[in-house]
Amino acid sequence: MPDNIRNVIIIGSGCSGLTAAIYAARANLTPLVIDGHEPGGQLSMTTLVENFPGFPDGIQGPELIDNMRMQATRFGTEFLAGHVAGVDLSRKAADGSRKPIEVNLGRDKLLTRTLIIASGASARWLGLPNEQALIGHGVSSCATCDGFFFSGKEIAVIGGGDSAMEEALFLTRFASKVTLIHRRGEFRASKIMLDRARKHDKIAFLCDTVVDDVLDVSKKEVTGLRLRNLKTGEQWDMPTSAMFLGIGHTPNAQFVGDQLARDGEGYLIPEGYVCSRAPGVFISGDVADRHYRQAVTAAGTGCMAALEAEKYLEEIGK
User: Fold this and answer.
1) DSSP character for 214?
2) Rounded to whole angstroms, how far apart are CA atoms 175 and 193?
3) Which run of H or of E encompasses 250?
4) Which of 38, 116, 227, 232 could covalently link to 10 via disulfide, CB atoms 3.0 to 4.6 Å apart?
5) Angle, helix 295-315 to helix 15-26, in steps of 10 degrees
6) C-alpha distance from residue 84 to each of 159, 177, 317 (Å)
7) Which residues are catalytic?
8) What is the mean pLDDT of residues 52-61?
9) Is the pLDDT of residue 185 over 60?
10) C-beta separation of 240 from 154 below 8 A
């Protein structure tokens, strides 16, 4: 058996992965965190975070991630920049013995006794010219996170499914008006969700309409949307203070393949809280959470995954 086997490898360096790293490092397991293609996760792309416990005046998302990373490093966590291409979770060797988990980084392959998958989920964006520059300045994919900042203002939600209806209904708690923009005339949302949105006096609908761009980068805040009617070709600018994307997220779990249980949209399905059907493999954060998607819930499952990994290593005598 090779002697370069890690005790814990964590895939993902967002809130969940870093929490797992802090707990695993404090247990003297010297975890290795693989940053992934979005180092720091979605928090690194946000501005003020006001709903994470312990920060009464709020904290900037990148600063919170930096603090967690420094905390994990202080206890002995190691970090590796890279993107996981694949994993081999089959544990039985040809001779019947238990072989380590293999993590494939392309050119390099790492071996570990336990693996925590905290690779998160990526928001689906529209791909507009100014969209990325205004994320955190009025462009958001999380109504729960950012809705409060637009109290009393007119805002827009993009999408036509249940996610868009949920975002729009939640945002009516703060906004003076919510305009729901959908590229088709028919909606994919369930009848009950669509009926709720249609009955709400703060929600207006713009169908057969797409967003061509977000305004205004020069002011470093959203001031409006450039819209286009798909039937007539008419283009116009609609004033708004924010654009919320309600078109869903994509879980970053492609590297797992069919080795773990996944739902129809590709989210990993844990057994119990954070365990998986593969021995020594644990799941935490947004890669399995299609409902809450909050920093604090991601941190909670990261803690659980690290404790389960520690317990597993004790059980196998490591």
Assistant:
1) E
2) 19
3) strand 249-251
4) 116
5) 40
6) 31, 43, 28
7) 142, 145-146
8) 93
9) yes
10) yes
- Which residues are CB-contacts of 139 (< 8 A; sequence separation ≥ 6)? 131, 214, 222, 242, 243, 245
Q: What is the pLDDT of residues 191-242, one digit of tens each?
A: 999 999 999 999 999 999 999 999 998 899 999 999 999 999 999 999 999 9
Tens digits of per-residue pLDDT, 102-127?
A: 999 988 999 999 999 999 998 889 99
| Cβ-contact 88, 100 below 8 angstroms | no
What does the alpha-carbon distance between residue 8 and residue 20 come to, in Å, rounded to a whole number?
Answer: 10
When the pLDDT of each residue in the chain is averaged and rounded to a whole number, the result is 93
Distance from C-alpha of 24 to C-alpha of 195, rounded to nearest angstrom: 47
* Contact yes or no for 80/34 (Cβ under 8 A): yes
Closest among 46, 79, 37, 84 to 65, alpha carbons compared: 46
Residue 1 confidence (pLDDT) above 60: no
The structure tokens listed for 21 are 């790293």
Taking Cα atoms as reference points, which of 252, 241, 214 lies closest to residue 123? Answer: 252
Which pair of tokens denotes residue 180? 């729901």
Average pLDDT over residues 51-80: 95
DSSP letter at 72 equals H
User: How far, in Å, CA of 147 to CA of 283, rounded?
Assistant: 29
Cβ–Cβ contacts within 10 Å for residue 276, how many?
A: 24
The DSSP result for 3-25, as a single string, is S--EEEEEE--SHHHHHHHHHHH
For position 2, what pLDDT does the model report? 52
Locate the DSSP E strands across 194-241: 203-206, 209-215, 224-229, 235-239
More confident residue, 36 or 89: 89
What pLDDT, on the 0 to 100 scale, is given for residue 83?
A: 92
Alpha carbon 222 to its chain centroid, in Å, reads: 23
Amino acid at residue number 33: V
pTM over 0.90: no
Contact partners, residue 232, CB within 8 Å, separation at least 6: none
